[in-house]
Write a structure and sequence with these properties.
By secondary structure, the protein is mainly α. It has one domain: Proton glutamate symport protein (Orthogonal Bundle), CATH 1.10.3860.10. The chain contains 20 helices and no strands. Helix 1 packs parallel to helix 12 and helix 16 packs antiparallel against helix 17. It starts with 7 loop residues before the first helix and ends with a helix. It is found in: Cell membrane. Keywords: Cell membrane, Membrane, Symport, Transmembrane, Transmembrane helix, Transport. GO terms for molecular function: symporter activity. It comes from Terribacillus halophilus.
Amino acid sequence: MKRFKIGLAYQILIGLVLGVIVGAIFYGSETAVNVLQPFGDLFLRAIKMIVVPIVVASIIVGVAGVGDIKQVGKLGFKTILYFEIVTTIALVVGLAFGNIFQPGAGIDRSALETTSISQYEETAESQEDHTVVDTFLEIIPTNVFQALAEGDMLAIVFFSVIFGVGVAAIGQRGQPVLSFFQGVSETMFWVTNLVMKLAPVGVFGLIGVTVAQFGLGSLIPLGKLALVTYGSMLFFITVVFSIIAKICGINFFKVIRLLKDELLLAFSTASSETVLPRIMEKMERLGSPKAITSFVVPTGYTFNLDGSTLYQALATLFIAQMYGIDMSIADQLLVLGVLIVTSKGIAAVPGASFVVLLATLSAVGLPAEGLAFIAGIDRILDMGRTAVNVMGNSLAVIVISKWEGKFKLNKEVLEKKAG
C-alpha cells in the first residue's frame, strides 16, 4: 500500500491557515501571543544557526574552484551592475503605480490607528551620515569573527571570497582546506533539510502572532495601499522578471513553480533568511555554478531587494498623498535618487524598509509621522516584499550565470518540479 505523503509546500500552507484561524480566534490576547511566539522563534533561530556556515563554506568551495581573482572581480562588477539596474526599475515601477492609482489620496488620517515607530527612529538617526562609501568600506571586516557572530552578510561574503582565492592560490597545499569546507557545505545542506521540517510549525507561530496582534480588520482602512502594493509587485513579477528571464531563454513561471516551497515559506515568515540555503541549493541544481550561486545570493540580500525598493518608492508617494502634498516630477526624481542611495546604504540593519523610508522622508521634506499610520499593516506588506526579493535574487543567479556563459539549464529539474 502506497504511503500518503504531504509535500512541504502543503505543510506550510496548512500551518499558515491554522495560524490565521488561531490568531483570529485569540485576537487581542497577550497570552495567545506569548504562547505562539516561541513556535516562530524556534524556527527562525534554527535557520539563523545554519545560514552563516552554509554561506562561508559554499563561497570558499565555489571561489576556490574558479581560482582567478580577476574572474572573481569581473563577477562582482557584473553582479552589482545588474542589481543596480533592476532595483532602479523597481523604484520607477513603485513611483508609477503611486502616481496612477493614488493610494493615499482622500484618506482620513483621524480614522487610522497609529503605531509607534520609535524603535526605528534611533536606527535611522544613527544612519543619517551613512554614505554609500561607508557601506563599501564596511564590506571589509576589521574582525572576521565579529562579522560571523553578527551575521554581517557582505563582510562574510568578502572574507569568504578572499579566503577561497587564497586556497586556490596555494595549490596542492590548500587541498585539505578545500576538502574540509566541501564536507562542511554538504553537511550543512543535510542539516538544512532537517531544520526545514520545522517550517510549518514556525509559519503557524509567526502568522498566528501577527493576526492575534493586529487582527484581519487592520487591513480595511489601508486596503487600497495593500492592493496597490501587491498589484505593483504582481506587475513587476509578470512583466519585468518575465522579460529578463525570456532574454535568458527561460520561462520564469516554471522557475517560480520550482521554488514554490521556498516562496511560500518566505511569504509566510516575511524572512528571506529562512530560504537562503535552499535557494542556493536549487539554483545550483538548475544549472548555475556553485561559485556564482554562492556569491550572488548572499550579496543580493543587501543590494538586490526588488520588492522592498518598489514598496519604498510607493510608500513615499502614499505618505505625500495622505498629507495632501503635491510632488512634482523634480520632487519624485529626488525621491528616486535618494532611494537609490539609502536602499543600498542601510539595507542590512533591522527593520531596513522602515529605516530607509524614515531616512528618505527626512531627506525630501515629507512628514516622517506618516509612517506610524502604515506600521500596523507593514507585516502584511512585508510578506509580499520578501517573496519578490527571493524571486529577484533567484533570477539574478540565472542572469549572471548566463552573462558569464556558464549557465547549463537542467531541463529535467525544471520540468519535474514544474509538473
